[in-house]
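Try this one yourself first.
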């Protein structure tokens, strides 16, 4: 009970006096601390928990503090020693902050004030030094987006650096009077610019077979869509104009892709900016894309006829035998190495000519980039 008189902000949390929790007051500052004993009066092996500010101040003293804790006669005498150490550390910190070129002690105070004003519910991650933190915002469709900040030591005089997963870069408007809330509001305003883009990409990702990328990020504007076992469409969408005609590249055997290219060129004037990206693509190609709801991935993907794998590092088997009776696909690098190993192959510039490993019909492949 003597301890509670000396430390009035500390309370006993159970009847057998093995758990104490509260605030330790040092030079006008309050530090949260919690102590759990294994048995009443037994300090050896006890648990000591504290907030990050105390841990930061006592960094380098932890082994000494635990040793003194086990040597003290009571929790009260230990807390008195802990107070003296904290007073010494705080006094040293204040003296250092007064030296030219040293970091201002108001750095953490200002940062904590900014975080309180912003709202801790918007903070998803923060490191112990408060130099890196992640903020999360929702767009109009309740999609979650994060911005990761690097806080400089001379914040807020210098703007924090940041990374994000938006399809376009943006610059922060920043003055020395700006705060984290300003960053968050500018970030959220920027998200509003890409609502139609993410709506279009979400529809693509959910309704058709996307071959690449396997796990697209919110910043990714490209998709490779399966058109069937023998063909795919590589497209790049304009993030600020997602309903405009994207750049398109047809991949696969010519006997499959040539009719699709012809439909594309003939119907391009039918592109309707009031319709969705997916709807317009199906209209001008005059086809319905294979869907995960009606087809399996095996129906739209075929393994390489040489290495028997579908994905080889970053390659898909998009080189195909032109003979419709064969139509076997290969990775470009696999087919190149195979043809080059055949004694009857010939080469013209960067193109290798040879025979299909399956049907022996003529086949060509470009030399893959080194």
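Now uncover the answer:
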């Amino acid at each position: 009970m003597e301890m509670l008189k000396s430390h009035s902000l500390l309370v006993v949390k159970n009847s057998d006096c093995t758990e104490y929790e509260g605030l330790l007051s040092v030079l006008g500052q309050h530090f949260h601390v919690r102590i759990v004993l294994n048995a009443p009066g037994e300090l050896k092996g006890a648990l000591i928990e504290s907030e990050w500010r105390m841990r930061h101040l006592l960094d380098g003293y932890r082994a000494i503090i635990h040793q003194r804790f086990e040597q003290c006669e009571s929790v009260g005498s230990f807390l008195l020693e802990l107070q003296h150490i904290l007073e010494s550390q705080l006094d040293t910190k204040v003296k250092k902050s007064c030296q030219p070129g040293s970091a201002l002690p108001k750095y953490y105070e200002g940062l904590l004030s900014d975080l309180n004003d912003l709202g801790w519910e918007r903070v998803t991650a923060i490191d112990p030094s408060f130099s890196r933190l992640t903020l999360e915002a929702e767009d109009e469709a309740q999609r979650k987006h994060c911005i990761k900040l690097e806080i400089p030591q001379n914040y807020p005089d210098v703007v924090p650096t940041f990374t994000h997963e938006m399809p376009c870069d943006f610059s922060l408007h920043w003055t020395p009077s700006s705060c984290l809330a300003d960053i968050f509001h500018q970030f959220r305003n920027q998200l509003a610019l890409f609502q139609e883009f993410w709506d279009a990409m979400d529809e693509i990702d959910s309704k058709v077979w996307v071959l690449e990328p396997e796990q697209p990020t919110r910043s990714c504007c490209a998709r490779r869509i399966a058109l069937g076992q023998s063909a795919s469409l590589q497209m790049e969408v304009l993030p600020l104009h997602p309903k405009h005609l994207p750049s398109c590249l047809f991949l696969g055997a010519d006997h499959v892709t040539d009719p699709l290219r012809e439909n594309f060129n003939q119907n391009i004037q039918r592109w309707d900016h009031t319709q969705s990206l997916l709807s317009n693509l199906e209209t001008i190609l005059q086809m319905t894309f294979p869907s995960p709801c009606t087809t399996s991935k095996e129906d739209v993907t075929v393994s390489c006829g040489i290495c028997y794998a579908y994905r080889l590092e970053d390659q898909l088997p998009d080189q195909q035998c032109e003979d419709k009776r064969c139509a076997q696909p290969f990775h470009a690098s696999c087919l190149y190495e195979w043809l080059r190993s055949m004694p009857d192959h010939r080469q013209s510039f960067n193109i290798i000519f040879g025979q299909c490993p399956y049907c022996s019909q003529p086949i060509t492949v470009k030399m893959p980039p080194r």
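Discussion: Residues 100-104 have pLDDT under 50 and may be disordered. The chain has four domains: 2-97, 106-193, 208-299, 319-366.
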